[in-house]
Amino acid sequence: MCGIVGYIGNQQAYPILIKGLHRLEYRGYDSAGVAFMNEKQELNVYKTKGKVSDLESLVESQDVSGTIGIAHTRWATHGEPNNENAHPHYSQSETIALIHNGIIENYAVIKKELLRQGYTFKSTTDTEVLVQFIEYVKKTNKVDLCHAVQIALAQVIGAYAIAVIDKENPNQIVAARKSSPLVVGIGDNEYFLASDATPIVEYTDKVVYVNDEEVVVIDRKNGVKLLNLSDVEQTAEVTTLKMNLSQLEKGGYENFMLKEIHEQQQTLVDCIRGRINVEGTEVVLSGVVDNKDKFLNAKRIIIVACGTSWHAALIGEFLLEDLCRIPVEVEYASEFRYRHPIIYKNDIVIAISQSGETADTLAAVDIAKQQGAFIYGICNVVGSSIARATDSGSYIHVGPEIGVASTKAFTGQITVLSMLALTIAKLRGTISNEHYVEIIQELQDIPNKLKEVLKLDDKIRDLSKIFTYAHNFIYLGRGYNYPAALEGALKLKEISYIHAEGYPAAEMKHGPIALIDNEMPVVALATSDRIYEKTVSNIQEIKARKGKVIAVVTEGDEVVSSIVDYCIEIPKTLEMFAPIVSAIPLQLFAYYIAVNKGRNVDQPRNLAKSVTVE
Question: Phi and psi at residue 374, in whole multiples of 5°?
């Protein structure tokens, strides 16, 4: 949520800032703004409620010259979305402008003192409090901007990624972070700043990731300097980005979500590549092999995640318990951080996050580390906070996911969890070699099966027209298909705004069956597995009450197809991989219903791609 872009160099800043904001639109936002200094050293701020295109209209007739600037897309936390609460925010003297991702928890205490000192406020945001506080510190302590930021942040409680420019110093951007991502791009005598790499990749592949409680001074002449809040210089490690511009374009698709659904046949190839030997007989995850004693001696695995990642974690629980015979607990990271969890030193905690920046999951990682557990991260974004905070881990390597509703990250996470379970099972000797090789070979064939499922695109688009104006949906599954049902329901509610709930099919009798009538569509995942007959029985209970059933079944199914209203057939696979294959039709079904309803599927209302605040 929220997006930061900054530039200092020899080019005009405004076009770079605006293009960067467009690149960050996928993160979710409700207002946008820019601040830059022109050649007269005037500090101009323009901001508005609405989209980046509204900001462009606002500044159309304004002076947008200047080679240093910062820009922001805001997702409201303090104060409603309006022009006054949009970023950037001026200091009282209008000599300093600041943009901010995160939440300042003790803003009220600071604001009370500033009011006592005669400061006034135009917005109801915690961000304006912070920029006023930095100006107050700068004046009262007679220090430069960098030291003012250090002193102010040392007294701040909360999460932040900030960028600040000062009219009195037109040759520097000062930025800092804590629990919210920030990356600096290094070009040819020019420098870029952003909340993630997407606005930077067009200009450079050399970046520096800013760590928690670090302040970065980006100087036009002297380059990048990293300091901590105590003014001790830190090492700026330059990393090469493994991302290209084509990954950030729609590639001929109507929107990013459809592109990313169709990319999955290839992204899973990328996810698997280099982790299975040429013969298809062995999985090697270096993050496990390099720490094999931890996995051999583990008595319990705890998985922490949020949203779609939590659904992948539930599938991971089935995989790890089935193959490795280790007890597994799956926790919402947002609940885990506020309990008093019992964690032992021989526990392994797996943290799953697409962005690697999810605030609740990061906090759960910190708690587990404090109690001595071994932390394994599963992320998509290279160099992200969770990737750096964990002891070991695996990237899912599915490429940038721009659509807010996760698609290819979900299937990538399940794929990595599958390989993780196989690697641990082999180490611990809990799987026969025959079964081990069978699973590996089937996993390698999953991308081909996704290719076949994607051929159902037109059929699912036609099916979606029948259910576009339904008000409620129920999704059902059993075993491995239960988390897949949860994820299918989440996709529908996220992008179409139709109320949908997922349930274990057998739980229908314990309450939800009261909802069944001829106006309640039910999506049943009824692929062939150990409890197929039980699922058939649950479907019959729904049909007896005149429910409309859409079933996802294995090709050649004759039993379920004879009793339901609509059928989507997917290729036969092992039951542990059914959630990957069935994810495609569920994603397409939600997608086309949302498109039929005229929804913005890439940027659904109220949602942010990376939830970097509580």
Answer: -85, 130
Measured between alpha carbons, how far is 531 from 369 in angstroms, rounded to an integer?
A: 39
pTM confidence score: 0.79
Mean pLDDT of 78-85: 87
* CA distance linking residue 478 with residue 460, whole number of Å: 23
Distance CA 552, CA 528 (A): 10
What letter would DSSP give residue 210? Answer: P
317-355 core/surface letters (b: 16 or more CB in 10 A; e: else):
bbbbebbbebebebbbbbebbeeebebeeebbbbbbbbb
- pLDDT digits over 529-579, tens only? 898 899 999 999 898 888 899 999 999 999 999 999 999 999 999 999 999
Query: Is 90 exceeded by the pLDDT of residue 421?
Result: yes
Q: Which domains does the chain have, with CATH numbers?
A: 3-247 (3.60.20.10), 251-431 (3.40.50.10490), 455-596 (3.40.50.10490)
- pLDDT of the residue at 384: 85
Quote the CA–CA distance of 10 and 188 in Å, as a whole number: 10
Write out pLDDT tens, residues 377-402. 999 988 888 998 999 999 999 988 88
Could you tell me the CA-to-CA distances from 77 to 27, 100, 231, 338 in Å, in that order? 14, 11, 30, 20
C-alpha angle 369-372-373 in degrees, rounded to nearest 5: 75
In the three-class reduction of DSSP (H, G, I as helix; E, B as strand; rest coil), residue 338 is classed as coil
Q: Which of 20-29, 396-405, 426-435, 588-597 has the lowest mean pLDDT?
A: 20-29
**d(C-alpha 83, C-alpha 97), whole Å:** 15
Q: Is 609 a catalytic residue?
A: yes
Q: What order do you get walking across the sheet with 521-526 strand by strand?
A: 499-504, 472-477, 521-526, 548-554, 566-570
pLDDT in tens, 227-272: 999 999 999 889 888 766 666 677 788 989 999 999 999 999 999 9
Is 306 one of the catalytic residues? no
Residue 614 CA: distances (Å) to CA of 155, 204, 211, 473, 558:
20, 32, 19, 29, 48
C-alpha 574/C-alpha 578 separation (Å) is 7
Residues 125, 442: Cα–Cα separation, whole Å:
53
Angle at the Cα of 37 (from 31 to 39), degrees rounded to 5? 145
Residue 2 one-letter amino acid: C
H-helix segments, 378-432:
385-389, 408-428
